[in-house]
Every structure is written in C-alpha cells, then in structure tokens.
Design brief:
The protein is mostly helical. It is 85% helix and 0% strand. The chain is built from four helices and no strands. α1 packs across α4 and α2 packs across α3. 7% of the residues are buried.
C-alpha cells in the first residue's frame, strides 16, 4: 500500500472513531437527562401529594430536602396549569431555566 492510500484509510478510520465517540457522548447525555427528568418528576409528584395534605411550602421543602424556591416553582406551574402531569410540569420547569 502506498503512503497516500494508507493516509486516506487512516483518516477514514479516525473519522469513524470520532463519530462513534460523539454517539457515545450523546447516549450518555441522554441517559443523564433522563435520570434528571425522572428525579424531578418524583419530586413534583411528592410536592403535589403533600400539597393535597395542606402542607406549607416550608414543610414540603424540609421533608424533601429541596429549596423553597424549587417547591414554589413547581406549585406556581401547577396552579397555572392544573391539568398538567408531573412529566409535563417537569418539562415546563426545564424550559423556564
């Protein structure tokens, strides 16, 4: 094999490896975002459950070990859009940030 053919083949292999690395990064990022979304949905469901029990924002924040501002944001979204599911509230909150 001459040098030019070897160089082209090496360059093609390197490009394929870079594409594979980007795909792995995207996959890992997707998994991380999915976990974050799931964790947020869990908190939202717990907040809404505790609101039904007539708990205050401070009480909910203490129980869930969350910031009061996060709890207020969830409640504000729920008050403005009571028909939304926890997943939809999480998406709206994510878009606010």
């Amino acid at each position: 094999m001459d040098f030019e053919a070897y160089f082209r083949e090496t360059k093609a292999i390197m490009a394929e490896l870079e594409r594979a690395d980007r795909q792995r990064e995207w996959l890992e990022q997707g998994k991380r975002l999915g976990r974050e979304q799931g964790e947020l949905c869990k908190v939202i469901k717990q907040v809404l459950k505790n609101v039904k029990k007539r708990m205050s924002v401070l009480e909910i924040a203490e129980i869930l070990d969350e910031d009061e501002s996060s709890i207020r944001q969830i409640l504000d979204c729920h008050e403005n859009y009571p028909e939304l599911t926890a997943e939809q509230i999480a998406e709206k909150i994510k878009n606010y940030a």
